[in-house]
Amino acid sequence: MKVLFVSHNHPEIRPGGAEGYALDVYEGIREAGEFEPVLLSRSGPPISIGTRYHEGRPITLVNHDPHQYFFYTDMSDWDWVFGRSPKKTALTRFFREFLLEQKPDVVHFQHTLYMGYDILRVTRNTLPDVPIVYTLHEYLPICQHNGQMVRTMDRSLCDHDSPRRCHECFPRIPQQTFFMRKRFIQSQMSAVDLFVTPSEGALEQYVRWGIPREQIVHEPHGFVPARPLPESSGERERDRFGFFGQFTEFKGADVLLEAFASLAQRQTEDFRGRLWIHGANLDTAPSKFQDRFRQLLEDSGDRVRLVGQYDRADIAKLMTRVDWVVIPSIWWETGPLTVGEAFQHGRPVICSDMGGMSEKVTDGVNGLYFRRGDADELADVIERAATTPGLWEELRRGIPAVPTMREHVASLSSHYRRLLASRAPVPPRGPAGTRNRPRVRDTIG
Amino acid sequence: MSAAPGGTPEGTLATRLGGGGLLVACASGAEPEGALPVGRCADGRVLALLKSGESRAATVSAKTFSRRLLAPLPADERNRLSDTLARLGNGAALSRSLHELREALRERLPPHTPAVAAPRGLVVDSLLALDERSFYLEGWAVDREAEVDRLEAVSPEGERVDLAAHAFRFPLPHISTRFGVDESAEEARPGFLCFVELEGPSHLDGGWMIEMENVEGECLEAPAPEVLRDRSAARERVLADPAHRRLPDDELMESHVRPAIERLQQQAQDGARVSIVEQFGAAPPKPDVSIVIPLYKRVDLIEEQLAQFVLDEYLSLQDILYVLDSPEDEDELLEMASRLHPLYEVPFRVAILKRNSGFANANNAGAQISRADLLLLMNSDVLPDRPGWLEQMVAFYGSQDDIGALGPKLLYEDDSIQHAGIHFHRAEGQPVWQDAHYFKGLHRDFPDANVARVVPVVSGACMMIAREQYDAMGGLHSGYVQGDYEDADICLRMMEAGSRNWYFPDAELYHLEALSYSSSLRVPANRYNAWLHTRMWGDRIEQLENGAGT
Question: Using a CB-CB distance cutoff of 8 angstroms, which residues of chain A are in contact with residue B303?
Answer without folding.
Answer: 184
